[in-house]
Amino acid sequence: MPETVLSEGLTTTQAPFVESIRRTGQLFIHQPYELYSPENHRAWRNLYSRMVPRWRAYANDHFLLGIDNLALPEDAVPRLDEVNRFLKPLTGFQAKAVSGYLPAFAFFDCLRERTFPTTITIRHGAKLDYLPEPDIFHDVAGHVPMHTDRAFAEALVRFGECARTAAELSSEIADEHLRAQRLTSIIKAMARFFWFTVEFGLMRSRNELKVYGSGLLSSFGEIQHAIESSDVQRYPLQLEWAINQSFAIDHYQPLLFVVDSFDHLFSLVDRLEKWMREGKLNNVAPGEPEVNEADLLSFLNARL
């Protein structure tokens, strides 16, 4: 490996190793741990240390237990092999390194197979508070501890199965325009559901509101804001609201939904698939997120 690449580290948007692999179109990769720079490890250490008090105050008990069960290092970027050594025996899930964005069907189908696509880069030390792209702190410290909980893991797998249902239903539509139109609406509904649950969900825990969404669990500012701010609207999760509600990623979320338990979440995923089969996701409200061509094609061309 050239010395110039070694010295660059694995900083998000500044990692030659990742950029070179992306150009080949390779999605699943290995984690080149030797490429992490001292600055990368320092960024992880700073992110982790300042989140610990926030997790203790606002995170749900399942997440806190997951953090303990994974034995995540506090002072260095974790090795995914080590994470999986603790994770897989608990729920069968594994974190799998990716070069970047995965098209929607591939991502959801990974969940069905108990695999979580994991970014290997880490945000720059000067940008700890917000990053529009996912990084290893968001993926491993935010998402993966939740994957140690069996009920939550089963809800994720069930959600992944919904993607396969969507692809199967669309394959039965002969008219290409109608097929694309319906799939676009279904993908939008699934993305919104994932956003308002897995990424930004709240849950009731011992008569308190706690955070289980990974977008909140990896955000120093927003995890507190989600629970304490009077600017946030918080409602029990109703499926018809979630799938028709647009969202923006560049500011704190003004609307959050609450589930009673992960069994409740699983039942909502079941209903999502039922509604999909009944055609209730074929014309959801317009707005964000927009469905790009790569995501649409990933469903249209899915191998079932």
Architecture overview:
The protein has 304 residues and is of the alpha/beta class. Helix content is 53%, strand content 9%. The chain is built from 14 helices and six strands. Strand 1, helix 6 and strand 2 form a beta-alpha-beta unit. Helix 6 (104-112) packs across helix 8 (150-171) and helix 8 packs antiparallel against helix 9 (176-199). The chain is globular. The relative contact order is 0.13. Mean pLDDT is 94; it is low at 1-7.
Structural features:
9% strand, disordered N terminus, 53% helix, alpha/beta, 4-stranded mixed beta sheet, globular, 14 helices, 304 residues
Share of residues in helices: 40-55%
Mean pLDDT: 94
- Determine the number of helices (DSSP H or I, runs of at least 4 residues): 14
- Strand percentage: 5-15%
The biggest sheet amounts to: 4 strands, mixed
Stretches where pLDDT is under 50 for at least 5 consecutive residues are 1-7
Q: Alpha-carbon distance between the termini?
A: 39 Å
Gyration radius (Cα, Å) is: 19 Å
Could you give me the name of the CATH homologous superfamily?
Aromatic amino acid hydroxylase
Provide the CATH architecture.
Answer: Orthogonal Bundle
In brief, what are we looking at here?
It contains 14 helices and 6 strands.
Element layout with pairings:
Blueprint (H helix, E strand, L loop, with lengths): L2 H6 L7 H9 L13 H21 L2 H10 L9 H12 L2 E5 L5 H9 L2 E5 L16 H8 L6 H22 L4 H24 L2 E4 L2 E4 L2 H4 L4 H7 L4 E4 L2 H5 L11 E5 L2 H16 L15 H8 L4
Parallel strand pairs: 1-2, 3-6, 5-6
Antiparallel strand pairs: 3-4
Helix pairs in contact: 6-8, 8-9, 8-13, 9-14
